[in-house]
Amino acid sequence: MITKKKTNWFRMLFEWKGSVLPQLLPRLILLFAFAVLVVYFREFLLRYQLHFNPAIFTLFGIALAIFLGFRNSVSYDRFWEGRKLWGALLNDTRSLARQAHTLVEGDDYNKERTEFIQLLTAFVYALKHQLRQSSPDADMHRLLPESVAKPLESVTFKPVMIMKELGLWIKKTKTAGRVDSITQTAMEENLNKLSDIVGGCERIASTPIPYTYSVLLHRTVYIYCFLLPFGFVESLGWGTPFIIVFIAYTFVALEAIADELEDPFGIQPNDLALDAMAQMIENTLLELDNRKIQPVPKTSGYYIT
Fold it and tell me: pTM (2 decimals)?
């Protein structure tokens, strides 16, 4: 995710990193060349009435902008819901770690508390890797004993299996008489909240915006952009390619941004910074467990993770 602070208005006009312009540049160059070709054959087009009334593009452009706005709103809703779920993940893991330290009786139980908090941390990293479809084995072996980490290698839904281990820890603690039934219920409620977070993240990751809707909007945007030169070639002349590319950049960029935000858990520049959030959750849990936090790498104002 990009965390670069906004610069002054003039420098932002030439901002490259974090913009969708690099991936759109080949398409815009193609459109520019096509518009130049249309202007070059302007006399032929005008002679045979192969041009359109610009008013048509004005009316159609308004409708297209409304559809693109709706598409971006839907995508941003998914992005923001993903961020809220990871904010809730931070709160609920903190609550469970605090309960393990303040409600579980016995000063001689610190080792077991640390095991519980390590399970919580492993749960966070397992969820991150599941959403990004990456291998969590290194983090699992770093955070968990081999007796727990090894069986997880062959498991598909690792966060759910780690939740099972968390539940067994609470059950074992209750059996040992370290917590009462009320405390057990309170901790189980927070575990249920973790389960809701996993389900919410899986719902976003596994349910994209209907493909047919994306195809329709994609086709409409590009057909509109490639027809634009025929509407302005008479009035703009050789200024047509530049104006067309500027208009096309707006429409095509909105579609590209919506595509990026649709899956907020990916590794594109504008996706959620799951690495940074997972490390921050790990550090706050380490502090709750009275341990030293992990150093956070310094950034130079531009950070994608």
Answer: 0.87
